[in-house]
Amino acid sequence: MKAFMTNGTADFLKKLEEKHTDKQLWIMSSNSGSLAYYEDEKKSIFASGREYDILIHKGNLQEEGYVVMNNIPVTEEGQPVFEDRFKKRKHEVDMMPGFQAFRLLKPKKGNTYVVFTQWKSVQDFENWKNSDQFKQSHKGQSTKPPAYFADRPFLTTYHMLSDE
């Protein structure tokens, strides 16, 4: 399965959604703009966008919620180590109150993986970040990034846009 994303204004992305009624597009927004996301086996409907392979898929995306994307640039030689780390994870996040969905997305072009989580609310995400489970799952990670990081990771966050 593949994942596709593109950025644009909310109005433009909603028009795309209206045009492609055969696809389940998830429209979300942040202070810096809006994003459309969908999952499919076929090629992208976006003229310009990003394509990913979904390596790990947990939970179902919801129409309402808070999305956190941890964008992690990974060196080519570090990709197997990075992917293996996630495949061996203990799944504590999946059990947290407010958890809705998790995706590990590998880029088709470039080197920036996306660790995509969806939460019922911002507070649910904050509760995860402050939990013992979070500390346990990130144990052993020093302040120095792993050698397989090509650059500093960064977070992007979004609120789902509903048709209300």
UniProtKB/TrEMBL annotation:
Q: Where does the record place the ABM domain?
A: 66-160
Asked if the record carries the keyword Cell membrane, the reply is no
Keyword Oxidoreductase among UniProt keywords:
yes
User: What are the entry keywords?
Assistant: Monooxygenase, Oxidoreductase
Name the InterPro entries on file: ABM_dom, Dimeric_a/b-barrel, Heme-degrading_MO
Q: Which GO terms describe its molecular function?
A: monooxygenase activity
Q: State which residue ranges cross the membrane.
A: none
Q: Which PANTHER family match?
A: SIGNAL TRANSDUCTION PROTEIN TRAP
Name of this chain's protein: Antibiotic biosynthesis monooxygenase
Q: Which organism is it from?
A: Virgibacillus salarius
